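pls design
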């Protein structure tokens, strides 16, 4: 894979490695996510998923390798500059402000950008939050809070969205709702990179699954193919057995 040959609307990670002191967290990780594709990144504990998320989003700089978005090399860009270019992110831990309403959070998300109130209202409708616009976020269910965070990430119209464990802590019903939102509302419209441990979510939302193990890509392909791979099964069974 070469950045000069990539699709202009793709998200590309090329040969990315990360070393902390003497510890190699990632080794030559490469992948390309097309516009409209949902790519799941999975792996056992310690596989390098958190490091990958932080490098992709700009929190960490890779030791080597490059990252590009829409034909632009963003390897050295800050998280804020990446967001302006079209890469949005949600976090594993909910970070909303108690006492503020849903609508106020949406206004906060745009931070003076040229996004109309109508556009924000339409997005709340799309995400199933319109009836909750004037509710304070601390009165919302965990599932509604996670969906609000996704709506905030989408309000500026990103081309790619990075979801870090979006169903963590959710009930079965809330998880099913998130599956529908990703599969029905986002898939095919923007690129989505989802870090996820729930294999039901992975199989129902993703086009391609990439498996990380010991900081490297161990497998990549359609969900049915990857998740039936004996090596992938062993990674998870071995990890489960050691805990």
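designed seq:
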């Amino acid at each position: 894979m070469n950045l000069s040959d990539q699709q202009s609307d793709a998200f590309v990670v090329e040969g990315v490695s990360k070393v902390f002191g003497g510890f190699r967290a990632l080794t030559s990780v490469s992948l390309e996510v097309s516009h409209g594709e949902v790519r799941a990144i999975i792996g056992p504990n310690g596989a390098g998923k958190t490091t990958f998320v932080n490098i992709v989003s700009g929190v960490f700089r890779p030791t080597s390798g490059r990252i590009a978005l829409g034909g632009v090399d963003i390897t050295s860009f800050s998280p804020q500059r990446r967001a302006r270019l079209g890469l949005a992110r949600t976090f594993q831990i909910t970070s909303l402000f108690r006492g503020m309403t849903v609508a106020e959070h949406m206004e906060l998300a745009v931070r003076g950008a040229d996004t109309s109130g109508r556009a924000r209202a339409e997005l709340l409708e799309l995400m199933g939050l319109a009836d909750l616009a004037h509710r304070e976020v601390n009165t919302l269910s965990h599932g509604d809070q996670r969906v609000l965070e996704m709506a905030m990430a989408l309000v500026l119209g990103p081309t790619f969205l990075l979801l870090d464990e979006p169903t963590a802590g959710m009930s079965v019903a809330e998880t099913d709702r998130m599956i529908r939102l990703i599969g029905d509302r986002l898939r095919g419209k923007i690129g989505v990179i989802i870090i996820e441990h729930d294999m039901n979510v992975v199989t129902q939302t993703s086009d391609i699954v990439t498996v990380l193990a010991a900081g490297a890509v161990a497998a990549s392909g359609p969900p049915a193919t990857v998740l039936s791979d004996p090596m992938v099964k062993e990674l998870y069974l071995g990890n489960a057995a050691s805990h």
